[in-house]
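Suppose a classmate hands you a notebook page containing two proteins, each written out with its sequence and a corresponding row of structure tokens. How would you begin to make sense of it? This section walks through that situation. The first entry is reproduced here exactly as it would appear on such a page.
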Amino acid sequence: MAYLLENSCHHLHLVVTSRTREGLPLATMAVQGELVEIDSLLLKFDVAESRALLVDQCGLDLTAANVAELEGSTDGWAAALRLASLSLRDHPDPTALIGNLSGRHQAIGEYLASNVLDTLEPDLLDFLLSTCITKQICSGLATTLTDNQRSQRVLEEIEKRDLFLRRTDGEGSWFQYHHLFADYLLHRLERDAQDRIPELHRRAARWFSEHQMLSQAVDHLILAGDAMQAIDAVEQAGPGLNEQSQMHTLIGLAAKLPPQHAAVRPRLQVDLAWANVVLRRLTAVEDALRLAHLGVDSLPTDQAADLRTEMDLIGEVIAAFQDRVDPSAAAATVQACVDRVESLHPWIVCRAADVASFRAIRVFDFDDALRWQRWGHQYHQRISGALTVSYGYCFAAIAANEQLDLAGAEAHLRHAIRIALLPSGRPTYVAKLAGSLLGALLYERDRLDEAETLLDDAYELGAEGGLVEFMLAAFGTGARLKIARGDKTAAENRLAEGLSIARELHLPRLESGLVYEQVRLGAMAGQEISPALAQRVTSPGEQALDGTGDITAEFREDSQIRLLLADEKASAVTAACHRARARRDHVDQRKRPRAHLWASLQLASCLATAGKSDAAEQVLAPALRSCAALRLSRMLIDEGQLLLGLAKDTMEAREFSSDDPGMSDSVREFVLSLTDPSTG
């Protein structure tokens, strides 16, 4: 045949049907454009063709769903469809038969036996039976299962002989049997060599474990009857999976384990608590910690002490996600971790530093927050995963940003994102968290394009969007950006979704911050504030600002001041000025530079609204210097034309003296860029 194909004239057309491609010069003919090859992928029936066979030709009473399910379960294999149609002809419940169709079906099994397996050499049949227990197969795995050092060649031979084996990856390294064929092979193996099956699963588990394919290894250990070894494997992998931000993987692996045995492994339960706390699955965290407490006394004394320290730390992390902080309790827990740094995993120590930074930020001790991250840096070097390290840089950025060290904050966040990117360049979970903060920072500098990409990525995290600081950026600043883009609907939807999450998760600081954004959005648009929103803002009454870290009260006070300004009555505006001044004066400018800057802008707006231009300019002048030096243009733009006009008047009326002789020109250039389109 090969000679005929190579030497005959081009008028000769041949049709060759065969299960093998060997012996014919097909590659040469394909290059010369003289070959049309119709393989199993082209021969497989689609849903329409399956319906034509089963319903139109065979006359079966099947629904469209029946046909689609049958086409899917046979993968369009025409012979299997035909055999199934024979079984369906007199079957009282077609849906049940279709739902249970497999290679164990008698007609399909007999077909495969007589037309395929009975014609094979014993060695090849044994190879097929030994390699059918895994969902996919490669040469290395096949060698482990069969002891055949020529496994790659055998797999390629099976493929060439069209024995229901196809490649599943671009490199051609992995193969997969048609699932009906694999079902039948496994049935034959169970029938003829049941005692071989556990050892085959153990071999597969060993190979998968050696190649860091833990999920498959666990599956085969369980199938081999080695459940305790499967639990050991997951328990040993738990800390590393958490460290590598593979929380979903760990939770999925644990779900495969026999619960009665996994429940008595305190180390595993603590790792599951860590995985779930990051994902905000607090009920699952509580369940895991409860089981860990029940079993911790079974461990050696030092291990038990370490595990109790971790459990206490998880409690503080839960409190942080719930936006609660007990400074003394957090300090005691962190100190317990510091006392055990030699035995605790480095990433646990870093989480302790994060808890310490969170506590410090909430009490406005930003220097201490940065100090803890500097202390934790030595342990960053001993961690391979990005989650905890990136979180640490985020806390450092929050503290730096509050001190108006914007360059430092941006550097921290860009580094956090860089180390958390996937090899493809796509952002991981923690990269999106860091991106929310960087997006907010860039937005304030009017770098909208990059900010929008980062904030949109963070917005996709929804309720799993980390601490309140991250969600305030994703939902609050994200809404401001949409307004800047002219998309009011998107802004309103983002705020509404954020508020829904805030109420669902009981996060009053997030709720009060987003309510403020709603009030600001309505006021800036010149809209009347809805009675429901006004009631929500004013019902708590005037907020007591005592400087203890209750940002919730500050947001509520800001909202009430904004409502008073929107009222436009002289008495309301006077009250707004009084409360804005009190609001500004209670902020320690040395400890909280950013908060003081924002409060100064708010007070200047109130005074300008009241017609007290001189007083407004006096308040605005130092704030304007800071905004100009840091290029915080959106802080002014978002307050509208009143504050922009006041900025221009202030710039023209005052001399901006400074040690830096260029400061006056810098402020002038900055203000003109905001108020004069020709210079923008």
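The notebook's second entry, a different protein, reads as follows.
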Amino acid sequence: MMKCLSIWLVLGMASCASAELEVCVSADAAGGGDGSRQKPHQTLTQARDAIRAQRKAGTLKSGEAVTVHVEPGVYPLHASWELAAEDSGTAEAPIVYRAREAGKVRIQGGMALEPGSFKPVTDAAVMSRLDAAVRDKVRVCELAGKVPGTFPEFKTAFRGAPAAPWLYVNGRPMTLARWPNAGASDAEWASFSKAVDTGLPKPEAADPALRKPHPGSFLFDDPRPARWNLSEGVWLLGYWTHDWSDEVIRIASYDTENKIIALAAPHSYGINAGTWGAAKRRFFAMNALEELDAPGEWYLDRSRKLLYLYSDGDLATAEIVLATLTEPLVKVNGAKYVKLVGMNFEYGHADGILARNTEHLEITGCVVANLAGGGISLDGTACAVRSCDVFHIGRGGISLNGGDRKSLTPAKNLAENNHIHHFGIFQRTYAPGIGVNGCGQIARNNRIHDAPHNAVLYGGNEHLLERNEVYRVVMETGDAGAFYTGRDWTSQGNVLRHNFIHHLGSGHAEHVNTMGIYLDDCDSGDTLEGNVFYRAGRAMMIGGGRDNPVLNNLVVDCPIGLHLDARGMTWKQWNNPGDSSWHLEAKAQRLNYTEPPWSTRYPRLAAIMNEEPRQPLGNTIRRNVFVDCAKQVCSFDGNVRKLLDKFEIADNLAVNTTGAVKDMAKPVEFKGFANLAGTTDKPIDLGLDDVAAQGFSVRWQAWIHKELPSFEMIPFENIGLYRDEYRQTLPTR
């Protein structure tokens, strides 16, 4: 390895003008360093400023590369580390910030707390509020001498993270004291089914406050809330009406006689005001000292600055971090040709890396974790996130945006070979593993899992979403999809291919409202090709949209294989000028959809108003294989069935491996499908011994090709994570 020197190293003969500056940073360095190996800078900010100074002095020219070597250590941040246009490199000479040892450099937005600072609780008043069985297990840490200023109070209602800070122990977020305790089943939720007041406007009410949205209330016949000190503040995180809309709302009061919980703020959809899903609504209570009764829970007395913890391990050897920074760890605005390599960005109460107006930013082999906000958000051109681990994230994992939709100019941003998991911790809905917008983004070979809602949420044009493995998502929500987009005719040109989607949350089984790929509310112009669905709920759902080819997909052991409805023909909100979210034509007009380049790229969209726009036409269904669908192979509503002659449906195969009648879909009766059934004595052997661990065997692929020769082999071995310089071994599922 080359020595770090604050000098120019000539890389060739006199005819070669390229040179490189190497700068060193060490968390243990003495002050006043010059960036050499012998006298390194202490922080990344110092290194950045030294590079700026050399450029200003003319000793570092724009065509000369810089590598900043960051030694192992923890680098606390008290404000965002920022890179601007003046910190740019060039294609031939980028600016690289690289960990000397990958995974050994941590950029941290919080403070370490010594295990020894956590003492047994001796305050009698506090002890009396704790369950007797845990009083000797809870520890308290005085923060008055460690954290300056005051702690902000929670808002009355919010989505996402509560007010800072948050506690992490041994690299995991702790749970703010709650009831019911967190677990792996519905037992972690309390529920109610009767609203006393939905909180929706009552136009005829005598009280003017009731004529507008107002706090709701509901019957809760359980004595638990009587234990809580509501004056200190107890909040409920609930799915108040819809299984795709979560919000945290403070309790205003609890009527112990009538068993009524009154909320302190209105919910936009009302309380239990009607939804597609279960009649019961769900919530859990948080921030109640009385509920500090399970390992891994904590509570902060914000006025007295006392932090209580029920440790779930040996606290004496624990790494304890209180995340306090309420701005992104890293901000990049206008910088070009910058690389961040092999570093960990952790412990902040906001986003990890936020990049705007950026070109050719590369984030490679990094860990972005333990954050209350999003992981990595890129808005620019030709940026890339490769081989990173993103986990324990309050909102979404990676966001890609950029390009120009009106001119259909692609951004060519890339998210590849990233392991994204355990996200949506605070904002439980519409906080995806990967979010894609704008024009021309690429998300490929990522593994995304363990989240309450979407894995991939996208909108815009010409995106390529391929070879991603997705599982254990949409785990606590309903009317939701692992891949989701919706309510837009103009979301055209997107390709979802060769993705493996398996073991999704079932939601409420009687409604089958968990989807693998969900094109909602007349979304149009997407191609679904060569995807594999295994135990993925309603595998593919097209909600009234047009021109969505469904080609060469494999669906195994899903309740419903393909859903297609004609909601545009029956829903009064379709293309309604009175509802901007549903005014589909207006959205298209804003993009000049009847003029080039839109009219030439998407001619069927350009002619939509002249071609029965309410009908879900152009949804080609070809070369798909459906195996052991429990309810329906194809769920088509009555209007779709009347339109079947207008659809191209051909070369599809429906398989019932055992010939079972009970709990198995009926054979498909309309055109374009062949039905194949085994028997109990001679079932069709698909070779699905352990699909999640081994994929679909060669024997299975050969069987498909024999029964449906037109079916194109899916490159299963190329789906998901792969080994490279930064990912030597693949994580287990």
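A careful reader of the second entry would note: DSSP finds eight helices and 58 strands in the chain.
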